[in-house]
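Request from the bench team (R.T.):
"We need a structural guess for the complex before ordering more zinc ion. Sequence and SMILES attached. Just send the tokens back."

Command: build protein-zinc ion structure.
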Amino acid sequence: MFVTSRLYTDAVTTGPSRSTMETGTGGPGTPGGGGNRVRPGDGRLNDRTTNQETVDFGDVKVIFRLCPNCGHDNQGSEKIPYCPDTWDMTACARCAFIYLEKSVAYEELLSNMAWEKTSKAEEKRRARSRPISYRFSALTRKRLHLFPRKNAALLVGRYARPGRVLDLGCGDGGPAQDLSERFVPFGIEISATLAQRANAVFERRGGHVVNAPCVTGLKTFPDNYFSAATLRSYLEHELKPKEVLHELFRCMDDNAVAVIKVPNYGCVNRMVTGRNWCGFRFPDHLNYFTPSSLRTMVRDCGFAIRRFTLMDHLPTSDNMWMIIGK
Ligand SMILES: [Zn+2]
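Reply to R.T.: structure attached below.
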């Protein structure tokens, strides 16, 4: 079962409604969406949208975000100068969470700005603007791959009971193929092209992929359905991280674990290399977690932290890993 378009339409129509601030050429108003009130602190989005010209993708629909951690409106506050163009990176004046105030709307991510396209554009931008450091970091990445690294499938094998495993932002399904036969892979992926590829792989093992934003995709699954979930390099991309975590909590059984991997904004490399840090990807990476802000967010969403040792968030590593459960 490959679940697609209708769900995606639901995602659009039940998401933030267009508002009076919209200036684009979006045509007639999107149906539905009324009644989605923004409540302070619940991580929901402000409904201000506009259109913005981008170098690689032309005119795209953009959403202004409240703080995804506490709901505070930081528009007009001082910006962090790492961020190019007009994506506006800020540290929340209320809770200090670091995030981009503008995000590309979900419907752009489905195809026009699907990750497989924006990541190529970002690679080109990096190579253009910093040829030497970019080549150096590419070499470094290759070298680092020689050393044993953490792997979500291995961690699932070690910490989860056999059963269904959900990969949020599953891409083309490649990494989930490392899961042992004890697990049935499921996925949610917003890029239509990648979701279709992953679905072909997961169906052979009894699972399937939902092509939708993760909040909407999660709603298609029953309570207590999964014995594990993986969020590999995903949460930093998510427009609504708290809503996703809340919904994921519902879908996980009482013994389930979720493995999270995100860039660590608090790492030494970011402080040394500044705007050249590999964890910056504009506008793909919307949320910039530190060990402290990641801890706070998952706990706020009801999770207990099962593992988050110093080895999981070494200041010398660009990424951090966390295992959470109910
Ligand atoms: Zn905040």
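Two things stood out. The pocket of zinc ion is lined by residues 67, 69-70, 72, 92, 94-95, 97 (CB under 6 Å). The first helix runs from residue 5 to 14.
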